[in-house]
Specification:
With 715 residues, the protein is mostly helical. Helix content is 68%, strand content 5%. The strands form two sheets. The chain has a five-stranded antiparallel sheet with strand order 1-5-2-3-4. A two-stranded antiparallel ribbon has the order 6-7. Helix 23 packs antiparallel against helix 25 and helix 32 runs antiparallel to helix 36. The protein is flat, with a radius of gyration of 38 Å. The relative contact order is 0.03.
Length: 715
């Protein structure tokens, strides 16, 4: 009986239960993203597990990790076994290293670990084939040990682990997480796994390192670590903490430790370029050039996607120098030069890369690199590049393509008659039957082509002189008309421009730009439009800062109807949207602070959590009191923006709010502290300095200042 299917439609536990219920014998093959797994079934029980043909199980590493044997003992046993056909378990038992019961226990553990991992797969296909197992799939150790695992207990253990792992996942995010011990006395009821894990926690080793060091099963180590966190004995390190530890390691001269810590910090802040640059510096000091080159390549990739793409060229150049044997890095360097570098540097680097690729037997890739370089407008006339590409195409056997390139190079270098002749002769060798090419070579050799070219140049010079005279006269008249139109526009709208309402002037300048776009005055009109729009935008922003959104809306709407550029339209629409929001918020704030206040206004004000209203809330939260301030604090708590910290800190230290307001301010500060980053700490710099001064005072505000520092810095 054979069958197959997809685990999306039926779970693997159901498949195994079916095999158990029908007491089938055969091999179950499961194929997923990690690869293929094989499970041997005998009369409805599991008797073997394999990672694939000639792979078996990672039993030897498991024996050493769980300390059933030492690595030296295992090596000696394997050497002794090599000369006989005895199973490893027998050799270990005869040597007094590990009895057969202990070996079977280790084998059972590693089989259960692999099975529980397999049962967690959700996207895979399976196929069961009855009959004998395929050759070279299941290793001889499993066969000789006659292992037999009942499916029911394995499924129960897997289900238990899945439930536990969901809880563990709330504490441990990945193998890159780092934990630190708290200054708390450990209880005496810790089990041996938890005690071993606690002994290994040093504030530097990540979870993956702990799993490798502690001689217990991975699941048991993770479970113990999660329980230690729950018991308050250890806690996870944040990115800022790890960065601080790295700085201390560097100050102490511990470069190796700093490399580990910087790597951990970058696992949490992959886009922190300053951290990565620091890691590069340390790696270079340690002479680990290849690793430094890989980090520089990451910096180059980030720079190419960011605001400073030109920096990518420098990063890739340094990376390529540090790892000269890495062809991939050299390719990235050439690509960066192609996108952001100087043409001459691009041409030189492309030829050097092509030479390396040709030496490695990668002529197709070399031709592609040279083709892209020759396609760059600034390098299309580079005869050296063209000749190198033609030679590469010759090596690939692309004779027609190579001949075309030689002819094109000869056209570009026709002033150098000997050089052009040499190129045409190479093309003729590739295309011996091309009569037009042969005639052209004869013309160059006899000087006929040079005489004909001189005649054509004289005729073209005369025609060009006549055309230029007419064009210059027309251009002068057009430029005069465009300048008159710009002057007339400003004369008729000067008062409005002076008042900061330049909408009508924008209309006139847009007409000049569209009608005389190719003239210098037309381009000047375009720049003037951009400046006038910027003038109106600043006026609107000043009106919003002065709590006059109506004036901002009036000026923006008029200007929006008189400009058709998409970028300006988008900017005006965004500012108009903010002005309408602030007008609505201002109306609600006025109603909430009126005497008597409108009961529903404060509630509606608290629900205004649009990020564009952040500046409005911050502008008013310290000015108003009562329900209006409570409403603004609720909105700021919901926005959860680090820019709210300075105002919240001042309110908390002042202590002039009621209990509800104090709780809201505390929530803002505590939430900001939990998500602090390097950028937010820089933003809070002046506030933190002020709090530190206040904390040293002897008045009632000192304790509140210390509390705020504790929330923000985790002190």
């Amino acid at each position: 009986m054979s069958f197959s299917g997809d685990l999306k439609g039926i779970g693997l536990p159901d498949v195994l239960q079916n095999l158990q219920a029908n007491r089938l014998t055969g091999t179950l093959r499961v194929e997923g993203r990690p690869g293929a797994r094989y499970v041997e079934i005998t009369q409805g029980a599991i008797t073997g597990f394999s990672l694939g043909p000639n792979k078996g199980l990672p039993l030897n590493e498991h024996l050493v990790h769980r300390r059933f044997v030492t690595r030296d003992q295992l090596k000696a046993a394997l050497d002794k076994r090599r000369g006989s056909r005895k199973p490893l378990r027998v050799v270990l038992a005869q040597g007094g290293v590990l009895d057969e019961d202990g070996f079977r226990l280790a084998l059972r553990e590693v089989m259960c670990e692999q099975l529980c991992d397999l049962l967690g797969w959700s996207e895979a296909t399976f196929a069961f084939t009855d009959g004998p197992a395929p050759a070279r799939v299941f290793d001889s150790e499993q066969r000789s040990a006659e292992m037999r695992l009942e499916i029911g207990p394995v499924l129960m253990e897997s289900a238990r682990r899945i439930d536990e792992l969901q809880r563990i996942g709330n504490v441990i995010g990945s193998d890159c997480d780092v934990f630190v011990r708290l200054d708390v006395e450990a209880t005496d009821d810790l089990d041996e796994v938890a005690a071993a894990v606690l002994d290994e926690i040093d504030g530097r080793s990540d979870v993956g390192t702990l799993v490798r060091r502690v001689p217990y099963l991975r699941f048991d180590v993770l479970k113990a670590l999660a329980q230690l966190v729950s018991d308050g004995l250890v806690r996870p390190c944040g990115g800022v903490e790890i960065e601080a530890m790295a700085a201390r390691a560097l100050a102490d001269g511990d470069d190796e430790g700093a490399v580990v810590l910087l790597g951990r910090a970058l696992d949490r802040e992959r886009n922190n370029q300053s951290l990565r640059q620091r890691l590069v510096e340390v790696l270079l000091r340690l002479g680990r050039n290849v690793e430094a080159a890989n980090e520089l390549a990451l910096l180059g990739y980030a720079a190419s996607k960011g605001d400073d793409p030109v920096d990518a060229v420098d990063y890739y150049a340094r990376a390529s120098e540090l790892a000269p044997d890495d062809v991939t890095l050299a390719e990235r360097y050439v690509e960066a030069l192609e996108a952001h570098g100087e043409p001459e540097d691009h041409g030189v680097a492309a030829q050097a890369l092509a030479d390396r690729l040709l030496a490695a037997g990668l002529a197709e890739r070399a031709a592609a690199v040279l083709t892209r370089a020759c396609g760059r407008p600034e390098l299309r006339a580079d005869l050296t590049l063209l000749g190198r590409l033609a030679e590469t195409e010759e090596q690939l056997g692309h004779t027609q393509r190579a001949a075309e390139l030689w002819r094109g190079a000869a056209d570009l270098g026709r002033d150098d008659v000997p050089g052009a002749l040499q190129m045409l002769r190479r093309a003729a060798r590739l295309q011996p039957g091309d009569h037009a090419l042969a005639r052209r070579i004869v013309q160059l050799e006899t000087g006929y082509a040079a005489r004909a070219r001189r005649r054509r140049r004289r005729l073209l010079s005369l025609a060009a002189a006549a055309c230029c005279s007419g064009v210059l006269a027309t251009a002068g008249i057009t430029e005069f008309l465009a300048a008159r139109a710009v002057i007339a526009t400003f004369e008729s709208n000067l008062d409005e421009v002076a008042r900061g309402v330049p909408a009508a002037a924008v209309v006139g300048l847009e007409n000049v730009r569209s009608g005389f776009a190719w003239t210098g005055t037309g381009r000047t009109a375009e720049r003037l439009v951009a400046r006038l729009v910027e003038l109106q935008v600043r006026a609107a922003q000043d009106a919003l800062a002065a709590d006059d959104p109506a004036a901002a809306i009036s000026g923006l709407e008029r200007l929006q109807s008189n400009t058709d550029r998409r970028d300006q339209q988008r900017r005006l629409e965004a500012l108009l949207h903010q002005a309408h929001l602030e007008r609505h918020a201002q109306e609600l704030l006025a109603a909430a602070t009126a005497v008597p206040p409108l009961a529903s206004a404060a509630g509606e004000l608290a629900r205004l959590v649009d990020p564009e209203l952040l500046t409005f809330h911050l502008r008013h939260v310290e000015r108003v009191r009562g329900e209006a301030r409570t409403a603004l604090l609720k909105a700021l708590r919901a926005l959860d923006d680090p820019r709210a910290v300075p105002a919240a800190a001042r309110l908390y230290v002042a202590g002039d709010g009621d209990v509800a307001q104090t709780e809201l301010v505390r929530g803002i500060l505590q939430a900001a502290g939990k998500r602090r980053s390097t950028e937010s700490l820089e933003l809070w710099g002046p506030t933190l300095t002020e709090l530190q001064h206040r904390a040293r005072d002897a008045d009632a505000t000192a304790e509140r200042a210390r509390q705020v520092l504790d929330w923000l810095l985790g002190m």
